[in-house]
Amino acid sequence: MTTALFGGSFDPVHLGHVNAVRSLLKSSLVPDRVIIMPAFVNPFKAGLERENRADCTDRLEMCRIAFNALPRCEISDYEVKKASLSYTADTLEHLREIYPEDELILMMGSDSLATLPSWNRFRDIINMAHIAAVSRSIEESRKIEGYSQAVRAAGGRVTIIETEPFDISSTEIREKIVNNQDISCFVDENVVKYIMSKSIYKQGDS
């Protein structure tokens, strides 16, 4: 069995995230399950203002909605329930305890792969998990090949997962929501309905 981990803030989850998981499911790595795990606090974002951000409950629910139609996907509240900084090495160890016989895959984008050697317990991470690096273009694939050299030199395994182009971030989507701009081409329609029904990211308007 193979278990893939896809973590992040998902604030909000968007079609780029969904496309990446869909591409992983069709890739040569063929995971038996993909665990989508929203972070309680991303270590690289711990100092950011929380204005116009969704709380943990809403981010979990948006992920459930967004990934509902994809097979073999599970939404995990493990890091949210920890209520502390989320370090990938600790989460991978948790998954090894649950699935001791499984091969682990860690999904990430090119930006994360570029900084991976500086992550907490980097060598433990690459010893525990095969890295699935998501690429949205030929140019990004070239960058990933460059970033992969440091990981492979340290004994890690990296596979490039090519997916559909997606050129907007969650930060930009939040800004569009605040400015009353249409986000329907970037976010699953049911997630959009959830965001609007709960006035997420626009709490200051009340």
Describe this structure in words.
With 206 residues, the protein is an alpha/beta fold. It has one domain: Rossmann fold (3-Layer(aba) Sandwich), CATH 3.40.50.620. It is 42% helix and 17% strand. It has 9 helices and 6 strands. The chain has a 6-stranded parallel sheet. α2 links the parallel β2 and β3. The relative contact order is 0.20.
How would you describe this structure in keywords?
Rossmann fold, alpha/beta, 206 residues, 9 helices
What is the topology?
Layout: E1 2-8, H1 15-25, E2 33-38, H2 56-66, E3 73-75, H3 78-82, H4 88-98, E4 103-109, H5 110-115, H6 122-128, E5 129-135, H7 138-153, E6 158-162, H8 170-178, H9 189-198
Parallel strand pairs: 1-2, 1-4, 2-3, 4-5, 5-6
Helix pairs in contact: 2-9, 4-6
Briefly characterize the structure:
The chain is an alpha/beta fold and 206 residues long.
Number of helices: 9
Mean pLDDT: 93
Biggest sheet descriptor: 6 strands, parallel
* Poorly predicted spans: none
CATH topology (fold) name: Rossmann fold
Query: Which structural class do the helices and strands define?
Result: alpha/beta
